[in-house]
Amino acid sequence: ASFVLQFSLGGAAEVSIDAVLVAMLGTHALIGIGEGVLTALVVGAVMEARADLVHGAPADARPARRLSTRAVAVAGLLVTVVFAAVVSQFASGNPDGLEFVAEQQGFADTAEGSAASGSPLADYGGTSTVDTAIAGLVGIVIVLGIGYVFFRLLRRGERGTPHAAASGHVHALYRHGESLLHRLPAHLKLVAGLGFVVGVVATPRE
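Above: the chain sequence. Below: its structure as tokens.
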């Protein structure tokens, strides 16, 4: 939806905004299903190793042998490095969601190079194996650095702000959501999400 808004304001191609919106939502809804499955697998793995880090985990969901935070962090870092430096070499060469929609709707040829197109790591640094691995590793370092800064800021603010102790297996940094969306029953959210996906996918394209 964000891209469609940007496209409607500055798009150079004469393409129906409605068609682009439907195509973007339909394509990324399907991508979201795959991402949801991957997220469920990751949460399941964390539940097995450190159930206390997962909000809402039952009290009896304790692993047979509790792993230390350092061990979990090191294992997670190693897996991330392997995926970024090794598994990324086998990534599909097919277009991603946005590129697919651009080709489908006929505005892919209007794309222009960005201001950073000449930077060392533009488009994953080139086509060689080493370039792709370096681009992935640099991305990991940047993301971990930003995450560490936010973590330190949260911990610093936590020291000066007393709050009620959370019950059950909830991490100390967890803050319970109080919005209307948070208060909706889980099954209603699931039905609404599935209905949205089915509705978007079933909408006829022009």
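The chain has one domain: 2-202.
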